[in-house]
Amino acid sequence: MKCKICKATAVVALRSHHTGFCADCFLKFFSRQVAKGIESQGLFTHSDRILVALSGGKDSLALALELSRQGYDVTGLHIDLDIPGSSPAARAVVSAFCAKHGIPLIIKSMAEEGMPIPLVKARLNRPICSACGKIKRYWFNKTALDMGFTALATGHNLDDEVARLFSNTIRWDAAYLSDQGPLLEGEDGFARKVKPLWRLTEFETANYAFLMGINHHIDPCPYSGGATFSIHKQLWQELEAAMPGRKIDFYQGFLERGRPAFARRDAEAGLPVRPCTACGYPTASGGLCGVCRIREALRQPEA
Ligand code: AMP
Ligand code: FES
Ligand code: ZN
Hints:
By secondary structure, this protein is an alpha/beta fold. The protein has helices spanning 23-40, 58-69, 87-101, 117-123, 128-146, 158-170, 174-179, 202-211, 228-242, 246-262, 290-299; strands at residues 12-14, 19-21, 49-53, 73-80, 105-109, 151-153, 183-184, 193-194, 274-275, 282-283.
């Protein structure tokens, strides 16, 4: 196969775009898709201060590198979960990446905050992934607001977004369907959240990471069992293979026509949020926020 643009030998075949690219032309294609994703949805501009949540995985590292190459003001944030056998390697990968590319990095250590994930897992009587997700989102938001960042970016790609949308759709979860998307405006103590890789598949970010020589953290979280999302992702891979282009059509169609149909009227909007009585984080509970409740549970003597 030849590169669609320059006719050199193609190294990346993109069936959804019915085409192939050589390395240079693929990198330009990737940059254009990121730029289009940012501009078409008004995610941010060059005057924003962007905090990029870096897990050490290929998507978030690819995102930080590409935004920095496009001249955006980028700082990394890594949440060190303190999971033995996994977190030290992820932290080392993120630190080396930021040092290599001159990207400032903030590290929040859950051990230092008194909530290492293995301890949370041992104390909570529910699946750790949802509590861990809550803890990560709390520190993303708090760090962004406390340190004056104007946008918080995560490395979610098109496959992540389509899997989530599909899961929300098969449950007809109207609340999630009303505000899922690459942009969640900041409000009531919540930072503006953006997902600039929403137009790019996991395959495309993997190719970008490979061609740009990004050394990333590969081991999956030792606590994540067969997540439902991976079943959905697999179904979508099959659909995409049979009908190239379906993923982006489904997601873009949702943004243009599906989401407006689910937009909440003010009267139906969620419960009013108030500051957590311990830490000030917005919460609908009227008392402690979810993370302070986890902190409380950790303080109780072991049963
Ligand atoms: P995941 O839910 O693990 O697929 O991660 C989705 C996105 O959340 C990643 O692309 C990162 O931007 C961010 N993220 C996940 N884990 C961490 C972490 N430990 N520290 C910083 N950002 C993270
Ligand atoms: Fe949080 Fe696995 S990453 S439980
Ligand atoms: Zn709190």
